[in-house]
Amino acid sequence: MKILYFAWLRERLNKGEDEVNPPAEVKTIGDLIDWLATKDDAAGLAFGNRKIIRAAIDAAIVDHSAPLAGAKVVALFPPMTGG
Amino acid sequence: MSVRVQQAPFDPGAETNAFLAVADGAGASVTFTGLVRSLPDDPVATLTLDCYPELALNQIGNMVEQAIDRFHLLDATVIHRYGTLRAGEPIVQVMTLASHRQAAFEGAEFLMDFLKTDAPFWKKQRSPGGNEHWVDAKPADDVARARWK
User: Fold this and answer.
1) N or C: chain A end with fewer CB closer than 10 Å?
2) Can you give the CATH number for the domain in which A73 is found?
3) Is A82 within 8 Å of B55 when comparing Cβ atoms?
4) Cβ(B73)–Cβ(B25) under 8 Å?
5) Does residue A21 fall inside a structural domain?
């Protein structure tokens, strides 16, 4: 599964994308964030305030309860500041 | 309808003229142009917008479809830039076309309120002294968006 990161999440993780293979118990976006946060100290800090992280699966916005099954590209990012 | 997400600058007047050139049967059009703001107590040299273009096209396309349905617009266009912009440069332009002015105004406001909270852009502000910070999402923008529920 490919993950894209944007804005300060990308900077704090020092990468714009990642290829991951999470264990079977990681079933939702929320699970994925929790799992990513355990990877190293930078990830722990970047995902420290997990509630504010927004997500998309295959270029459609989803919430933290969305299932990962079948997802090709997951994007994780801070609240949007468009306009 | 038309949605463009681009790094290249655009000419706000030329875009409005092109939009109006195919306005047969309409009675009103509104153009809103958003600029990179620099204020004396919050000076900005550049604003760099990070963007997820594929998601932006999906999100803005949905917004424009909703605006056309809800306000019975005859047409609508959104142009949104990303990359590094200088103070004073246009970032975003929303244009609506309708039979009457109220629909054209409301459609443009609706689109701008949704762009603030639901379009995947993230702004990094750089001061003339070189300090950089990511612009936080504003609670007032969530309030503005919520009034359309």
Assistant:
1) N
2) 3.10.20.30
3) no
4) no
5) yes
Is A28 inside any structural domain?
yes
Place of tokens 């590209």: A73
- Residue A83 maps to a domain: no
Which of B37, B54, B135 to mutate: most A Cβ within 10 Å?
Answer: B54
Instruction: For each of the domains in chain B, give its residue range(s) and CATH number, in order of start.
Output: 2-146 (3.90.1170.40)
In A, which residues are within 8 Å of B59 by CB distance? 61
Which pair of tokens denotes residue A5?
Answer: 């990161």
| Mean local confidence (pLDDT), B27-35 | 98
Rounded to whole angstroms, the Cα distance separating B69 from B5 reads 22
Which residue shows structure tokens 């990161």?
Answer: A5
The pLDDT value recorded for residue B24 is 84
The number of folded domains in chain A is: 1
Q: Do A82 and B118 touch (CB under 8 A)?
A: yes
The alpha carbon dihedral of B111, A56, A34, A39 has a sign of negative
Domain that includes residue A29, residue range: 2-77
Give the ipTM of the model, two decimals please: 0.95
pLDDT at position A28 over 90 = yes
Cβ distance of B59 and A61 shorter than 8 Å? yes
Q: With respect to residue A73, please indicate whether it lies within any of the assigned structural domains.
A: yes
